[in-house]
Each structure stands twice: as structure tokens, then as C-alpha cells.
Design brief:
This protein has 14 helices and 16 strands. The longest helix is centred in the middle third of the chain and has 14 residues. It folds into two domains: 176 residues, Medium-chain alcohol dehydrogenases, catalytic domain (Quinone Oxidoreductase, Chain A, domain 1), CATH 3.90.180; 136 residues, NAD(P)-binding Rossmann-like Domain (Rossmann fold, 3-Layer(aba) Sandwich). The strands form three sheets. Strands 3, 5, 6, 7, 8, 15 and 16 form a seven-stranded mixed beta sheet that branches. The chain has a six-stranded parallel beta sheet with strand order 11-10-9-12-13-14, sandwiched between helices. The chain has a three-stranded antiparallel beta sheet with strand order 2-1-4, with no helix packed on it. The relative contact order is 0.16. The protein is of the alpha/beta class and 342 residues long.
Length: 342
């Protein structure tokens, strides 16, 4: 079978690998659509693991089932989560599923950017979801990123009537924009350096959009919040400067969600004294769990999240290198999808 082997951002090769063999309690899925995630574009995050097959937003059709598999059949249309927790460890008992050691060791084999991939038993049991016929594979590939954004809002404890600032209007920034309204935000402000993305944010119900190259974001935030700042800031841009601005935009007692990691060795300087007296809460949110993916599927299926409108570019598996180049360089791209077509 064909796979897209990642060596580095500029070196992604179409290679041949054997079709994975499955166990009695596993299934083989033919990939139909798989999105490129922002983490797939972080070279520092991947270089020590390369070469490898990336792709953790896959949807496809079950091609083969093991003898002990009961609830899935050949031909089922499915979304598969690449990580699942054990559900029994200390972290899982406390609801911190993404911190579970098993979560990091349960990977689809070899990855989503392949003609076929093996679904381990735990992934199949805990977070493989059947896709309704009316939902396209492309739309289903957005379940994972929507789930990530859902978890960020849940961890941040958003309340009806809150004001929200989203810094960074890439795919997840736009999803956050839509979700903020679903969660009842009274005012959603979105900031980005590219006008195309701001126009997309407006399509997804942003109330105010700001390009920091032409307007002072803090001035806008203060003006829109009677001078106090927003209740919740979500930073989707992997930038120390973005986090600095986010803290300035946050009201006393507000919350700043760390949704994007910065490069190793980059640090945000914070005064414990100022943090103490302002009572700003800093809340990281990494990945998603089996709880949010189910909600994400329902939101996409119902049309409350317009997944299809987030997809700007589509490429064949053989064109994965070009797909990555587009995701990296094209400032008028949002979600870039790799398709495994007949």
C-alpha cells in the first residue's frame, strides 16, 4: 500500500509499506479522508520521531475485521481517534484522560496518511465512531479538531454571557469562534494578521475581528468590554507574543486558555504577584477524549458546526507533499484534507 512518509516538512515521500495485519479484536480501515493538523506542521515536535507516517484525523471504511470483533462490520463508515485512554488509571479516574500513559501509546498503524491503517482493540472499543450516511468523510475528518476545541471550552468553564477573545484564526480558531456562540458567548472577538481568516471568522459568527497590523487589539478589547477586558481568552497561535497580549486582554478573574504550544526553550514571564492579585487563571488544554468526539460528531451532523466550509484545499494521497506545502505557506488556507480516492 502507499503511505506518505514524513522525513521533514520539505521531504515527504510516497513509499510502499505492507498492509498492516490485524489481530482478532482489531479492524483494518481504508482511509478516505484525513486532515492536516497544526501539530503536523511543527517540525520541532516531529524531527526526533521522523521518519514516520503522520495523520491523526482520519475517516474511512472498514475493510476487514478480526474474528472477535462484534460491533463493527466490513463496510462501516467510521471515524477513528488515534489516541484513547485506559479509563482505569489515576489520571483517567480524575477525568484527565489526555494525561493517561496509555493515551500516548495507542496509535493507529501506521498513520492516517496511508491507504490503509490498523485500528488497535482499545481504539476500536473506546473511540471509533460510526459515521451516518449523510455525513461525508471529509466532514467526519473534522471530528478530532472540533473535539479538541470542545475540551478547551469545557476546561475553561465558559458561561452563557461571557465575552471571548480568540487569538489566531486558523482552523481551530474558527472552530472556537463557532463554539463560543454555541456555548452562549455574548461577544466574540477574533484576532489574526490575515484578512482572509478574519473574513472566515465573520462567517462563523465573530462579532468583532481585529488585524493587529492595523488596529491595537487591546484598545479594541477594552473598548468592547467597558474597559475591563474579556472573560475568556483562547490562544491558538504558537507565539509568546500572543500569550503576552492574551494576558493583557484578560479581565481580572478571567481565564486564559493555552491551546497552542510554543517551541522548546520559549518561556512566558509572569509575575506571581500580579497573578495573585488579578486572579487570572491559566488553563492548558491538550488534545481531546472519547467524551468530546461524540459531541463533535453530533455538532457536525446537525450542521451547527459547518465542517465543509472549513475545508479550503483537497489533495490526493500521492500529493501529500503539496498538501503540506499548502498548509504551511498558503495564507488563504484553513483545513487541508488528504483524500484516498479510487
Amino acid at each position: 500500500m502507499k503511505v506518505a512518509m514524513y522525513y521533514n516538512q520539505q521531504d515527504i515521500r510516497i513509499e510502499e509499506k505492507p498492509i498492516p495485519k490485524i489481530g482478532d479484536d482489531e479492524v483494518l480501515v481504508k482511509m478516505k479522508a484525513c486532515g492536516i493538523c497544526g501539530s503536523d506542521l511543527m517540525d520541532w515536535y516531529l524531527k526526533n520521531r521522523a521518519p514516520l507516517v503522520l495523520g491523526h484525523e482520519p475517516a474511512g471504511i472498514i475493510e476487514k475485521t478480526g474474528e472477535k470483533v462484534k460491533d463493527f462490520n466490513v463496510g462501516d463508515r467510521v471515524f477513528v481517534h488515534h489516541h484513547v485512554p485506559c479509563l482505569t488509571c489515576h489520571y483517567c479516574i480524575h477525568g484527565d484522560y489526555t494525561l493517561c500513559q496509555k493515551f500516548h501509546n495507542t496509535n493507529i498503524d501506521p498513520g492516517g496518511f496511508a491507504e490503509y491503517f490498523r485500528v488497535p482493540a482499545l481504539n476500536l472499543q473506546i473511540d471509533t465512531l460510526k459515521i451516518p450516511d449523510k455525513l461525508s468523510f471529509e466532514e467526519a475528518s473534522l471530528i478530532e479538531p472540533v473535539g479538541c476545541c470542545l475540551r478547551a471550552f469545557k476546561k475553561s468553564g465558559i458561561q452563557v454571557g461571557d465575552s471571548v477573545l480568540i487569538i489566531g484564526a486558523g482552523t481551530t480558531g474558527i472552530i472556537h469562534t463557532a463554539l463560543s456562540k454555541i456555548f452562549g458567548a455574548s461577544k466574540t472577538i477574533v484576532s489574526d494578521f490575515f484578512d482572509f481568516r478574519l473574513r472566515m471568522a465573520e462567517r462563523f459568527e465573530a462579532d468583532i475581528t481585529v488585524n493587529p497590523k492595523t488596529d491595537d487589539l487591546i484598545d479594541v478589547v477594552k473598548g468592547e468590554t467597558n474597559g475591563i477586558g474579556v472573560d475568556l481568552v483562547i490562544v491558538t497561535a504558537p507565539s509568546i507574543e500572543a500569550y503576552k497580549v492574551g494576558l493583557k486582554a484578560c479581565r481580572k478573574g478571567g481565564k486564559l486558555c493555552v491551546f497552542a504550544p510554543t517551541r522548546p526553550g520559549e518561556y512566558l514571564r509572569i509575575s506571581p504577584k500580579e497573578l495573585f492579585f488579578s486572579e487570572i487563571q491559566i488553563i492548558p488544554s491538550y488534545s481531546t477524549s472519547h467524551l468530546e468526539t461524540r459531541t463533535a460528531l453530533e455538532l457536525i451532523k446537525s450542521g451547527r458546526i459547518k465542517a465543509k466550509e472549513l475545508i479550503t484545499h483537497r489533495f490526493k494521497l500521492e500529493e501529500t507533499s503539496e498538501a503540506f506545502k499548502t498548509a504551511l505557506e498558503n495564507k488563504e488556507s484553513l483545513k487541508v484534507i488528504v483524500l484516498n480516492e479510487e
